[in-house]
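2024-03-11 09:14:02 INFO queue: dequeued item DNA repair protein RecN, len=557
2024-03-11 09:14:02 INFO validating residues
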Amino acid sequence: MLSHLTLQDFAVVSRAELAFGPGMTVVSGETGAGKSLLVDALMWLTGARADAGIVRHGAERAELAAEFDLGDAPAALHWLRENELDDDGACQLRRVIRADGGSRAWINGRPATLGQLSALGGLLVEIHGQHEHQALLDRGQQLALLDAFGQHGPLLDAVRDAARRWAGLDRELADLARAGDVGERLAWLEHQVQELAAESLDAESLEELAAAHRRQANAAGLIQGCETALARLAGDEGLSLQRLLHQTQNELARLAGDEPRLAEVLSLLESAGIQLDEAAAGIERLHDDFDLDPDRLRTLEDRLARLHDLARKHRVPLEDLAARRDQLQEELDGLAGAGERAARLGRERDVAAREYNEAATRLGQARAGAARRLGEAVAALMDELGMSGGVFTVALEPLDTTRPAPQGAERCEFLVSANPGQPPRALRKVASGGELARISLAIEVAALGLDAVPTMVFDEVDTGIGGAVAEVVGQKLRALGAERQVLCVTHLPQVAAQGHHHYRVSKAVEADTTHSQVQALDDKARVEELARMLGGVEITKEVRANARQLLSRASGK
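2024-03-11 09:14:37 INFO prediction written
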């Protein structure tokens, strides 16, 4: 529900702040005062394209803001959460339009696109009147209203679920078909997996292979190095490290009697001697292990070359061959039963298609009954609204598609003839703006506001009518206001008297500049405004009495 609307430098309005409540709110005023500016402001706030002409003359920009209470708009609250624009259940729309034509928009203080404004606005406000931007002209909205009127929610959910299952199985079968010849693919996968499985590809095995290859390729150098080290440690010729160490120990041992502290040094030298002996033994063992084996080297080189060839073949680094093997094995496992899987999916798809057709048939039958009832109800209301003899029908047409449609197997079109003897035509092709507005009103009243949009705006729905018909229009709007918030711009007192709340738009000229003001009316001011609408220039006691009578009759007092 719209709770507040703020306008600044918008057309002829310098600044206006309006508060709205539930029920029916009427807006009246003299011709040219700017009654429809409130409707225009809501259009700009819900995604209409920017027009620099709406900026008040002499101002740099126009600013518009609206606040909504989302207690009656769960779809809008869900949209805000889905788009991460929610703010503790609040909803504020703001739009700035510059004099150079530029425009910016915000939702709950966050920058938003016009597409987002339009999507959210469509869940908050529905505008009816002499405008092209009317939701009821859209065939998708017509179908949604028909389903709401018929209370087809469970039937529609069943159709959507069945369509989702059918489409999902269809995609799986298409994925299998895109894989090409399954048998050929299986043979290729089996060969690749066998080729990779023949090799030890884990990280530890690859590291051991690389180390073994390095040892064998450098075996001669390793043997020579070990022999040289052994000669230095314990060689028979020259002074080896071990011999030098023993000589040093003997010399220091003779001196230890004169200097007791040398005992610690001798202990260290003894330990060093033991470690040298162990080092020599270790080198000797390694020396014995090394073997100049050309065949072994060739085997290791062949294996490394084979692994590098596999890596190039599969276009992965050597260390990723194991992951590639596992990936191919997974695909192989998945395709192993592809034939059986395709047959199973085909059977499941046939079942889903049958379930969808059954659900769509049930929905179609319910829609046919609802279409007949809605047509009769709207036609009767059209007669009350001054279009005697008018015809309204809801045409259902089968969808020409073999694919499952989540909205059902048919689409609908609202057909109308406002004049007797004329064939019904599509509502979107009705030429008269006034007739279109009243037909829209009749549809909404017949549906008792069953569509999800909480705020309905009717702009000049009373164009071309008067007298008793005007009072009926007002009564229908008031009845609709019991289900939804209704804003109505009117020039007829019979309609204005039916409102629960009343705003008057007036204009004045100051310093050669026209300004419009919007004023909330109390009971006394409402009588004066209705009297003005009834009596024109001269307002008499009789006219005021008539105004009071209209208000009393509307409120049931």
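2024-03-11 09:14:37 INFO annotate: Residues 507 and 516 are 4 Å apart (CA to CA).
2024-03-11 09:14:38 INFO item closed
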